[in-house]
Amino acid sequence: MEFTEWRPHPWHGLETGPEPPAVVTAYIELTPFDVVKYEVDKPTGYLKVDRPQQTSSSPPTLYGFIPRTYAGERVKELCPGAVAGDGDPMDVCVISERPIERADILLTARVVGGLQMIDGGEADDKIVAVLANDPVWGAVEDISELPAALIDRLDHYFKTYKLFPGSAADVTIPTRYGREHAWSVVEASMEDYRERFGSSA
Q1: Which of 39, 84, 92, 197 could form a disulfide with 201 if both were Cys (CB 3.0 to 4.6 A apart)?
Q2: What is the pLDDT of residues 142-165, one digit of tens each?
Q3: Whether the Cβ atoms of residue 97 and residue 139 lie closer than 8 Å to each other
């Protein structure tokens, strides 16, 4: 059995997925039960506290990123109105029927769509995916097959999750898109990663 002697960096040391851009690996940073915003520390790969949430908003789904992706020039070009990519790995929201209560985990997810988000002028797309082999959501092929209320919650969360009392968020979500465009965004982020870090970062 092959194994990794040392824990790989979740952004740079893991594979993008078994069949990207359709089926990807997701590293989970947040669960729907978290009221503190966690994110990967880029130099070390450890999960760190970013900030306590200032409002009662919680992520409606599992939330993390796709390894070996990067929001650069190609991702920006797919996001009209953005002046740059945000320079982070591609975010992914994963829908699971069973509650998953812990972060710092890996899972396999099937890409079904996304939210085209602009944060402070930067492309910050949120890919929407379903947990592979999920007994309820596993047969979903496109975001249009998901309940509108669930996507509305995601939309609201990302428009408000950086708010604090008395502030105004500089976030817009001009559109929601289906599977084919989501695949294009993931492919663009994989190309941006290779250009930024090389194929064996």
Answers
A1: 197
A2: 999 999 999 999 999 999 877 766
A3: no
Q: Is the peptide bond before 21 cis (omega within 30 degrees of 0)?
A: yes
- The class of domain 23-197 in CATH terms is alpha beta
**Span 186-192, average pLDDT:** 98
Give a three-class secondary structure readout of the chain.
CCCCCCCCCCCCCCCCCCECCCEEEEEEEECCCCCEEEEECCCCCCEEEEEECCCCCCCCCEEEEECCCCCCHHHHHCCCCCCEECCCCEEEEEECCCCCCCCCEEEEEEEEEEEEEEECCEECCEEEEEECCCCCCCCCCCHHHCCHHHHHHHHHHHHHCCCCCCCCCCEEEEEEECHHHHHHHHHHHHHHHHHHHCCCC
List the structure tokens of 23: 């089926």
Mean pLDDT computed over every residue of the chain:
93
**Beta pairing, strands 122-123 & 84-85:** parallel
